[in-house]
Amino acid sequence: MHLDTVGDYIVDARRLLQDRVAPYRYPDEDLVAALNSGILEARRLRPDLSLNANRTNTYPLYTFLTPTDPVAFDPQFRVALVYYIVGRCALSDEENNEDQRATVFMNKFTSQLLTVAS
Amino acid sequence: MALTAPFSRIMDNLRIRVPGALDDGLKHELWNAVDEFLRDTNVWTDEIEFTTSTPQDIYTITPTFVPARIVRCMGLWDANDIPVPVTMDDAGILAIDKATPDNSTLTTIVTLSVQEPVDADGMPQLPAWIVEKYYDGILDGTLARMFSQPAKPFSNASLALLHQRRFAGQKGLAKREANRRGIYRGQAWTFPQAFRVSRRV
Fold first, then answer.
1. Cβ contacts (< 8 Å) between B153 and chain A: which residues?
2. Environment class of residue A83 by beta-carbon count within 10 Å: exposed (0-12), middle (13-18) or buried (19+)?
3. Which residues 6+ apart lie within 8 Å of A87 measured at CB?
4. Cβ-defined contact of B22 to A49 (cutoff 8 Å)
5. Across the strands, what pairs with B51?
6. pLDDT tens for each residue of B6-65
7. What is the rounded distance in angstroms from the CA atom of residue B32 to the CA atom of residue B165?
8. What is the predicted ipTM?
9. Contact call for residues B84 and B78 (beta carbons, < 8 A)
10. Is the Cβ pair B19, A51 closer than 8 Å?
């Protein structure tokens, strides 16, 4: 399935960031850190995304060192997670046009989790 | 006793009717709806026999269905079908209010509801006939609970209200049917057996 592993998220996020040629502007480490943050943000917005993890209060922590690790996330919202990674990376830029892009992606992440038409 | 209920069609319906919902979330509310349905309607009953031993007057009973939990006691009868006064303040613990002879067999009918663990598919375990017969009620109950959740893509107060009303109607129908033991226009009561004129054998 699309977006199964940590590596899949990195590749898809790089496509939207237009950062597919090494040396990269955004290191893998930053992308995976954004993935981990995105999962926590998703839990805040949609507690039903992680019912089992909520019981134990233990959430997955992925690392860029193991790109083949599967990411347990509902297929409906995997694309939203990519938008979060892109938005968060874009936030780290200082250029004005990136701020606007970051806001668009962060808002898209939120609206995809909370509304059907998004 | 193995309990396998046909939930796949209900899940298909739920996925279509609640866009943006997760399977885990649907199963969670499905469990809640089934539990409420069973607790409110008394449709799932279990007949449990046990033997008395004087001077004991407190007996712990367990359902023959596993997993299931006892909700309420519908009555206790001796071997001659004569009702025995009993109370059940704690589910599954019968306190007999009348001296009973040693080694006599008493029969109680209790109503049951679902209990964890869920099955391998994450579904509540209950007899298949309940899900088949009260399919609409269980579906409406789950939909009402899903639509009433706040801050979700599928949050919808008016639909929640609509399905809650339908669920309440289905529960009322099921409760009446259970009360009449599934007989159309059946008698909903029995004459108090303590006042009967002849003893049944």
1. 113-116
2. buried
3. A101, A102, A103, A104, A105, A106, A108, A109
4. yes
5. B105
6. 788 999 999 999 999 999 999 999 999 999 999 999 999 999 999 998 778 899 999 999
7. 16
8. 0.81
9. yes
10. no
